[in-house]
Every structure is written in C-alpha cells, then in structure tokens.
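Input sequence (259 aa), recorded before submission:
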Amino acid sequence: MFTVIVPTHNRPELLRHTLQSLIDQTYSNFTVIVVDDASSYIPPYAELQPLQGRYVFILRNGIAGPAESRNMGLAISKSKYVLFLDDDDTLEKEHLQSLANHIENSSPELLFCDFKVCHEDRTLSPPQRLSIDRIDISGVTRSSVFVRNRIPNSCLVYRQDVVAAVKHDNQMAIYEDWDFLLECLKGRTLTHVPINSVVIHKSAANAAENMRRGNAHDELIVQTMLDLYKRHPAPDMPTRLERQSLMAGAGIVLAIDYF
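Predicted structure, token format:
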C-alpha cells in the first residue's frame, strides 16, 4: 500500500529514532526506502532488522541534499501510495493504519494531515523533549498552497501515478518540496485527513549543524517564492490577489500581472 522514502544525511541518532517509529507501526503493508547521501557511518542495521524484507537502504553519491535522494527513492517505489519522511521526524504507531482506513476502497490523489511539533534539546543524547504542540491545518486548501505552503513534507501522501513523472529540483536551495507539491497539484485534488499522528521534531538553535532543523537560507525566501509564482501560475484571480498581498506585506510591490 505505502512506500515511505527517508532521505538522510549524517544523522544516525536521529535516523534511528525515525526508523523506530516505522518499526512500531500497527500497519505492516509498507516498504521503507532510506537514501543516504553522506555514507560517513555504518548504516543502522540493528534498527533495520525488524523491517527485514520491507526496506531498501541506498548509499549514493552525486549532488548532496534531500531532493536527489527523494528522486532516487521515487524511481524504485512500486506501491500505490508514497510518503516522504524527514530523517528527524516520526510517525505515531497508528499513522499508517489511519491512512489505510481513510483510503479504504477509494483512491484519493493527494492527502495531507495535521501534525504535532515536538521541541527538543539535541545537545543531549538522546534528544530531550521540551514541549509539544498540536497543529491543525485543516483550513489549508489547494488554492492556498499556491500562495504559501503550510503542509510539512512528512504530512503528505501521494498516489503513485501522481508522482510518476515528477521530480524534485535538485538545484533549489530551499522549497524544493513545495515546488514538487505544486507540480503534483496541477489538475489534481488535495484531500485533508483529520488525523494528528505525524510528529515534526524541532531543535534548539544551539544544536550542532547536523542536528538542527530549519531553513539555513532565509535570504533566499522571497526570491524563491517569486520564482515559484512564475513557475506555477495561480489557478484563479483570488489566488493571484493573495500572492500580491503577501508580497506587499514583505515590502515587495508588484503589479497583479506578475502573479
């Protein structure tokens, strides 16, 4: 039913935590594809052993970054649905079962769900939980994603045929996951699933570089958004106006024709 693609880069401790959340799933009809672009440590075979026969671990070279790793995972995925799970995020044990129950005999194209944010101190080993917040994104619509993306990558589920001809842009420094989602949304339907079983883990600012989560290229945000607006035209005039208003709030005043 599902393939879970996990790109990873030199974070074995966090990856082990992510894999354990997959081992703990109450639903078993899934395959895990881990794509490692660092190859600087021994793969976590002990954690993978419980997934024997249901995992692929790839050590790759070439362009570093999650985009190319996700593309490689997609290239060998054969299941009906595909999920991307960051190597520092986790799924609560009922997550895949809840998705399977929601899909049942239907065949939705793209799904997304709510999530929790777990703030943690990664200067400690293992990381220590500081607080957790529940985030409701049920108000996100297909049109709103063309303005800004509020859906974490780990909360999305793609039907295989939707992603079959789409690739992540490995030249993008940020927002390659948003670009991928926008490409998949062309002519497709986005469906909200009212579950809250994805956990997005966030680190304190003083965590080591390979343990941090967050955008390291804040200076690229506005220009990248404008580039995405050009690459993915707004589906209607209200969405164009929302884009214009959002940019105006950031001090970027452009004619409506730009959007």
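Checked by second reader. The first helix runs from residue 12 to 23.
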